[in-house]
Design a protein that fits this description.
The structure is a single chain. The chain is of the alpha/beta class and 283 residues long. It folds into three domains: 119 residues, Conserved hypothetical protein from pyrococcus furiosus pfu- 392566-001, ParB domain; 48 residues, no CATH class; 53 residues, no CATH class. Helix content is 49%, strand content 12%. The protein contains 13 helices and seven strands. The longest helix is centred in the middle third of the chain and has 15 residues. The radius of gyration is 22 Å and the shape is globular.
Length: 283
């Protein structure tokens, strides 16, 4: 994944009219560890225990050098916006309090901050990033172009990551756990149907095939790969409409035209994927 634009910091990610900026944060405070609750919008699902253990040892020797970011809740607790690993490690290290910056922000801002903070630290798996992108597009009513500006990525990079959500759920799990790489996933996206994607994903995991191995085996089975040449003879106007719809919906779209009308076919690969597409269409 690209990291080119991620060094700018949270304060430069948001536009001037965003309520939250680093310069307007409250002063650093010490708050009780047991009053902190996890961020319900946290896009990260997996935490590496060895990394947590290393952070615990660092905190025992050096303390917490960077405060967590929180917001106060109606029941006088503090919900994490950014810094969940530090909070977990502080608790395991036996600290009673943790340094924090307290700011009241909306749910949308919390989710956006949590996503960008994790991306900047490379803490999310590519599937977690894809799901977080999907959620930001849904809940902020963003286009992929607008989202790419928010997260400091190119539009093509955002689109390519979101395409991973068209893979079957079990294949996504392989990618999320590290059993398949992003390179494997991109190759699997070229397969003609879900059954083939699942079968080849399992074979890659079982036989520990490299991306090059997978590409070589698929070249020996060309019938299983999408044949892009078929679209070359298609009316360029039809092809352009299909391309626009594909970018907008993040899935395969086929436009069939006739003398008096036509049909639009939209592919989806899970109920969650269908829900995502419907929200894009209906909003």
């Amino acid at each position: 994944m690209e990291k080119k634009a991620l060094g700018r910091g949270l304060n430069t990610i948001f536009s001037k009219d965003t309520l939250l900026s680093i310069e307007t944060l409250d002063e650093r405070k010490e708050i009780r560890v047991d009053l902190v609750i996890p961020n319900r919008n946290q896009p990260r699902r997996r935490f590496s225990q060895p990394e947590i253990d290393e952070l615990v040892e660092s905190i025992k020797h050096n303390g917490i050098l960077q405060p967590v970011l929180v917001r106060e809740t109606p029941d006088e607790k503090f919900e994490l916006i950014a810094g969940e690993r530090r909070w977990r490690a502080a608790s395991l290290a036996g600290l009673q309090t943790i340094p924090a910056m307290v700011k009241q922000v909306s749910d949308h801002e919390v989710m956006e901050l949590a996503l960008i903070e994790n991306i900047q630290r490379s803490d999310l798996t590519v599937i977690e990033v894809a799901r977080a992108y999907q959620r930001l597009i849904r809940e902020f009513s963003l286009t992929q172009d607008q989202l790419s500006t928010r997260v400091g990525k190119t539009r093509s990079s955002v689109a390519n990551v979101m395409r991973l959500l068209t893979l079957p759920h079990d294949v996504q799990e392989f990618v999320e756990s590290g059993s398949l790489t992003l390179g494997h996933a991109k190759v699997l996206l070229s397969l003609a149907n879900v059954d083939e994607q699942q079968a080849w994903a399992k074979r890659v995991v079982q036989e520990k095939l490299s991306v090059r191995d997978l590409e070589g085996l698929l070249q020996a089975n060309p019938k299983q790969v999408h044949r892009e040449k078929r679209t070359q003879s298609k009316d360029p106007n039809v092809a352009n409409v299909e391309a626009q719809l594909k970018r907008r919906l993040g899935t395969k779209v086929k436009l069939t035209t006739g003398s008096k009308g036509g049909r639009i076919s939209i592919d989806y690969y899970s109920l969650e994927d269908l829900e995502r597409i419907l929200e894009v269409i209906l909003r």
